[in-house]
Design brief:
The chain is an all-alpha fold and about 130 residues long. Helix content is about 85%, strand content about 0%.
Length: about 130
Amino acid sequence: MHKTYIKTAAFLGALSVILGAFAAHKLKSLVAETVVATFETGVRYMFYHVFAIFAVGILYQSFPNKLVKMAGSLFIAGIILFSGSLFLLTYKEALVLPGFKWAGPITPIGGACFIAGWVCLGLGIKK
């Protein structure tokens, strides 16, 4: 299982760099600065939690339990929900699309996944 988390972290880490470069070089010409800031927040939290997923992959070898495994899953879910919803909101603004109102309320659910992931990780290595 630990290799899956490490591979996932590597993939998401590369994607974070690609999205960050896109924000720095292209997105600024497409949308307002406040929208760029929203996108960059998504990238930043994604990148922070890439390291958390990587840590789970390493820690799982020494602490192979359900809480550590759950932490990795929650970090991945948090990236999808938190960062993904911010990316969708940016996409909506860039293309001036109607709808996507449902994406805003998803962001805090992703944040809750991040928090729960850290709690599970802390409890999992305490065992």
